[in-house]
Every structure is written in C-alpha cells, then in structure tokens.
Amino acid sequence: MKKLFTRRRIIVTLLILLSVYWFCFRSVALRISPETTKITEPRTVDGKRVDYFQAIVALSEPKVPPSENGFRMVAEAVGRIPFEHIGMNYWTKICQKLDLEPLAPSTTTYYKKMRPLYEAANAELGITTPLEDEDRIAANPEISEDIPFFWNIDPAVEAWLQTKFDRMQESPWTGEDDLFMPFMEQYIWDISPVLDIVGEAVRKEVYHIPLVEHENQDEPDAAMVILLPCHQSQREFARDLNRRIMYFLAKGEMGRAIDDTITIFRLGRHLQKESFLVTRLLGVAIQIIGFQTANHILHDPKLTGEHVERLMAALDDLPEKAPVNNMYCVEEYEMYDIIAALSRNQYAFNLFSGETFPGGAIKKPILEWLNYYGYNWNTVGKTAGKFYQRQIDVRNESDPIKRMTMKDELLAATKQIDQRRKSLTSYWRMIFVSTRSTMMGDAIGRFYISLIDHELYTSSGDGVIELLRLACALELYKADEGRYPDKLEKLEGKYLQEIPGDPCTETREPFRYRLEERDTDESGQVQYGYLLYCLGRDGKDLGGKTNLKIPGTDDLYTPDMMKSYNITIRK
Fold it and tell me: Is residue 61 in a domain?
C-alpha cells in the first residue's frame, strides 16, 4: 500500500512537472505558413526559413542594367570612402551589382578636400595638435591619410567648423563671412566635380542604391545596417549643393543656383522611390533642404519670369514616388524577420523595457528569465501580423472620417499594450507560454505601427513641392498683373491646371493663403506681400508659425521631426 502511494505521488509529481513545462516553459518552433511568416518563399539555401532579404530585393530593385543606374556614376566618382567603416566585402558586393571594379581608384577627390578647412580652424583657435592619427593610418595602410576619418580632430575645431558650415548653407554669403570665405570658396570649387556628377546622375530615370546582403546573413534587419551609411552620404551631397547654391546666389549666378536646387529635389524624390521607411524619410529631409534654397531663390531680386518658369517646369517633372503600399510591405517583412531571429534565439526581447539583447544564456531572475525563453512562436507571428494588419486597414480606408476613428482606436490599443506589459498583473501572468506569446506578438506589432504618423511626415515632402508650385504661379501672376491675387483660385487655368490641396492633411484641405501689407511706394500706395503655408502633421493651423530647419544627422527619428509645424513661404 505504501509503495502504491509512493508510486502515485511520483506519477502526480511527474504530471505536475510535465504540466508546468508544457504550459510555462515549452517553446514551439516557428513554422513557415502565411499565418505565421506572412510569405513562404523565397527560402534560404538550406530551405529551413524564409529569406526576407531576397523578398525585399525582389520588391525594391528596379529592373535596369547598371549603366542606366545614376548611382553608378556617383559610386564611380567618390569610390569606396563613404562605405569604409562597413568593410571591403560590402563595397565589393555593391560594385558587383553596379558592374564596377572594387579596387579601381575614384575619379574625383570629394572626400579629400577638408584638410585646408581643418588647418584654418586649428590656426584660428590656436590648436597645434597634428591632424594625422599615426596609429589609425598605420592600421589602415590602404587608406589615404587625407581622409578626415583618420584625423585627430579637436572637439572645439569640430564645433567651430560646424557653425561655419551651418552659416554657409543658411543664406547667400555676405562680406561678414570674409574670414572663412576663402577656404569655403576653395572647398566649393574642389568638390564641384562630384556635385556636377550628382546633378547628371539624378537626372537619369533610375537612381538606386543597390541592396546587398550583410556579411552575417542571420542578422535581422540586415538591410538597414548596410543601407544607412549609403543614404547618409546622399544627405551630405544635398548639404554641399545647398552651400554651393548660397555661393552662386551671392555671386549673382541665378541659373546655376536653380540647377543645383533642381538636383536636390530630384535626389530627394529618387530616395522617396525606395521602399524603406528610413529612405523615404531621408528623401523628405533632402526635399526640405531644396525647399529652403528655392525659398531664397524666390526672394532674390534678380529673379526673372524665365527663372520662375524653369523652376516650375522642373517641379512638374520630378520622378514619381514608389507606392506607399510597398513601404508597408517592406516594413512588415522586416517585422517577421525579427520574429524569425527571436525564434532562433539570436536575439532576446524584453517585454518590459522594449530592448533587444544578443541571444544565449542570460542570468536573470526566474520571471524575467521567462521573458526570454519559452514561446509559441506561431502565436507570436499570428498576433503581430493581426496587429500590423490593423495599420494597413487604416491606411487603405478611403473614408477620411472613418479612417481617423480607426487610427484613434489603433493608437489607443498601443497605449493599452504598453500599460499591460508594464503592469504587475501581467508580470505574473507571463508565467504561461500562451500569455507570454500573445504579449510578445502585441509588443512587436506595436513597435511597427508608427508608419501612420511617418506617412503623414513623408507627405510634407509633397507639401513643399506644392507650396513652391503655388509660389511660382503667384510670381507669374504678379508679373502679368502687377500684384498678387487676393485668393489662390485666380491662379487656376492660366498658371495652374488646378489648385492642389494640402497633402499634409487627411482630407487635402486648401492651402492657407492671405495677402499681408508690407510697405508703401513713393506714391503712397500700399504694397502687399503674401503668407502661404500648409498645415503640420496633426492638422493644426499655427498661423504660419514654423520650426522647420535643415534636418541634421540625427533628425530622422527624433521627437522634433514629428512636432507640429506649418511649412511656410512669406513674401
């Protein structure tokens, strides 16, 4: 009897342990199906998982020969230097897609013209530290010592130069800049061969930075790891074009200033043809640079009707953007790629902090340990996919009122998810695999639903284009009538086929426009200018108040990027 009791106790104990394992610790591998991985093809070489990188390439790569890709001209001109810290393997793969020789020298010296500027700054600030970092140069013998990446640059020098560079792109140069102008003027002429090549390249139908695979093919989000440095170099081109425009305006070379402005707009629009969110955001940032330079051109007293017509024609002939649905699709693939990496224990996701960590053994208290191990990855994939689909449903809703309601409900759901995963009750409920898996899916889906707001931000790129088209039409009207119209509708027909709506608003509301008294002429008659603006991403009318600035290196995902502002032209 005693043995029977002992045997039953052992069986009960084993059943309890099995139940605990089954409901609390058992991981269920991710299976490939439309419900859990979104797509089932293409597969990796071993056929065991979906190759999301190749799926993104198939969706994003234009089907043109390398010779027709404008980016090939730029890569050939600047060479490997912009991608140096990525590694030679990456550059070799880029060159293979562009049909270039990886070890061929660049045809220009775009990245080797900074030395006079740094030497001038050192002299101005009394700094005697040599520029060369001998240790870094010795460790990289194949790289020219004329590259700033290998220099000892004093922070004070960096700050001083940054203020000068900012000044040189804010407005046309003046005599107040005499101290720095000789060096900057020489710099502009030194880099002009590359800027001219960029101008020629973006006037091609295709200007595409090829996607190549990361050296670690298991790396989730690998495309972004290698794509960002390439795209940041495009913004540097735009900034240098901006500085050259300010130089041309100071010298009275209006035609060349307009050429460079058109180059900036075409460069920004080409980036908006890509399917990655970050690329489209960068394209908008570049178009904002173009908007500010065009604003200076419109205010220049040497502006003629011929200049205005030329600028307006170029704005009408910009490359088409890629469909927004492509961006949603690529971001969804990236989300599922992250889930697949998590399921392989390459990464761990902290449901409480939202942080990711390298996979492997992590010493944590038991309940936090459960945060990393023991998931039904099929539940995670299904839950994340359903949450992401809600965002797509909002995007596809044609009724603006219903769309706003759906969007508000979705944003409220994200707040509930944030509160639930941080609550004490959820902390204990996470003991169970089912709860933990659902919360993981919700959390991952929640982190990928920012596209709605970012889409409104990207619409500001269209906003600046339409504003400038309206401003050009206003100048042509004034040239004919001697004054600005009292309402925009008077431009319709002769100057514009139709008056565009504000793309920064959900319902394409009219642009805000009003005449403003400026001064009086010699006869005592009042002279009028105008205020023209579009609304911010939240649809608030701030009366034309704007905090729009030339976007900095880190502005793509900062809160400032998403702040409400009006994009304004005042003349």
Answer: no
Token pair listed for 174: 């003046």
Nearby residues of 125 by Cβ (< 8 Å), 6 or more positions away: 154, 156, 157, 160
Same domain, 422 and 497: no
Residue 261 falls inside a structural domain: yes
Asked if residue 198 and residue 78 are part of one domain, the reply reads yes
Residue where a domain terminates, one of 402, 422, 449? 449
3-state secondary structure of 519: strand
Q: Are 44 and 108 found together in one domain? A: no
Judgement on whether residues 282 and 356 belong to the same structural domain of the protein: no
Low-confidence winner among 160-164, 216-220, 420-424 (lowest mean pLDDT): 216-220
Contact between residue 121 and residue 156 where contact means Cβ atoms under 8 Å apart: no
CB 520, CB 552: distance < 8 Å: no
Q: Is residue 192 part of a domain?
A: yes
pLDDT at position 556 is: 38
> For residue range 461-503, what is the model confidence (pLDDT) as tens digits?
788 888 899 999 999 999 999 889 988 899 888 888 888 888 8
- Which residues are within 8 A (CB) of 182 and not within 5 positions of it... i.e. 6 or more apart? none
Q: SS3 sequence, 434-458?
A: HHHHHHHHHHHHHHCCCHHHHHHHH
Span 28-45, pLDDT tens digits = 888 999 999 998 999 988
Quick one: 75 and 41 in the same domain?
A: no
d(CA 385, CA 395): 15
Last residue of a domain, one of 269, 292, 315: 292
Q: Let me know whether 114 and 247 are in one domain.
A: yes
Say which residue, 510 or 86, is predicted with more confidence: 510
Query: Residues with Cβ < 8 Å from 334, sequence gap 6 or more?
Result: 52, 56, 220, 221, 223, 224, 448
- Whole-angstrom Cα distance, residue 495 to residue 484? 13
State how many domains the chain has. 3
Pair 280, 153 in one domain: yes
Same domain, 23 and 125: no
Amino acid at 80: R
pLDDT on residue 509 = 82
Nearest one of 195, 174, 165 to 78, comparing CA atoms: 195
Specify the pLDDT at position 242: 93
CB 513 within 8 A of CB 484: no
Q: Is residue 277 part of a domain?
A: yes
Say if residue 299 is exposed, middle or buried (CB neighbours under 10 Å; 0-12, 13-18, 19+): middle
Query: Can you give the residue range of the structural domain that contains 500?
Result: 486-570
The tens digit of pLDDT for each residue in 152-192 reads 667 777 777 777 777 777 888 876 655 567 777 888 888 89
Q: Provide the total of helices (H) and of strands (E) in the chain, helices listed first.
A: 21, 5
Residue 464 neighbours by CB under 8 Å, 6+ apart: 287, 288, 290, 291, 567
Buried b (16+ CB within 10 A) or exposed e, 436-473: bbbbbbbbbbbbbbbbbebbbbbbbbbbbbbbbbbbbb
Show the DSSP H helices in 207-319 as ranges: 222-251, 254-272, 277-299, 305-316
| Collapsed DSSP state (helix, strand, coil) of residue 348 | strand
Give the model confidence (pLDDT) of 297-347 as tens digits: 998 889 898 999 999 999 999 988 777 778 888 888 888 988 888 887 755
